[in-house]
Structures are given as structure tokens and as C-alpha cells.
Amino acid sequence: MNRLISAAVAATLLSLAGCTLHSPAPGSPDGGPSGSAGSPPVSKSHPRFAPPPGVSSHWNGTLGVYQIDSERNTYYRERTFYRWQDGWSWAGTLQGPWQPVDSTGVPPALYRHHAQ
User: Residues 27-62, buried b or exposed e (16+ Cβ, 10 A)?
Assistant: First the structure.
């Protein structure tokens, strides 16, 4: 019985020995490309937030959202599209329907980006 327990402990320790931790790259808080000074952090994706399905976009770390490449002032995060056109609106798909929303319904950094 002791041999069985010893073998199980040894197997567990060996499997854990292969695990390593990696720090984000210097200059990039999320480990993505750091970009040049003064420019917003830009990468194709984010490790926590999934990109919009079927839409070309890129992650904007300064705003905390994906920017839709084909649409001006249109963004995406957590299954919601956001659009700025003289006020905020949101939709579940890029085609709409678009519903008006106030500041409480928009990610804070994104809202501040278009604040007057």
C-alpha cells in the first residue's frame, strides 16, 4: 500500500515539475505587443475577451474593447457591439437592431474616449 501511495505522490510531483509560469513581456501589461510610446496598445486578440465572431477586428488595450476594422466608431466586448454616432447605442450583432444606451451601459474607457 505504501508503494502505491509513494508512486502516486511521485507521479504528481513529476507532472507538476513540467509546469512553468511566464511573466508578461516587459512594457505590456497583458503580455501582448507593447507598441511604441504614446500609441495605444494594439494586438489581434485579448487573453480574456473573445473577439467578435465573423468580424475583422483588433484589440485596443487603451479602450478595453475590440475595434471593428470595417466600421467607424464601432466596438465589441463580451458579446455586445457598441457604436458611437452622436450618442451611444448597443446591439447583439453588427447588423443591429441598435438600441440607445447611456454611460452606464458602455465600458468606462470607451465612454471616456468619445466624451465631449
Answer: eeeeebebeeeeeebebeebeeeebbeebebebbbe
DSSP type of residue 1: -
Q: How far apart are CA 35 and CA 28, in angstroms?
A: 8
CB neighbours of residue 83 within 10 Å = 19
Task: Give the global pTM.
Answer: 0.61
Cell numbers placing 51: 473577439
Distance CA 13, CA 114 (A): 52
For the CA atoms of 16, 17, 19, 21, what is the dihedral angle to 10 degrees?
120
Calpha distance 65→77 (Å, rounded): 5
- Residue 16 φ/ψ, nearest 5 degrees: -75, -25
Q: List the chain domain ranges.
A: 40-116
Q: Could you report the per-residue pLDDT of 54-113, keeping only the tens digit for each?
A: 999 999 999 999 999 999 999 999 999 999 999 999 999 999 999 999 999 999 999 999
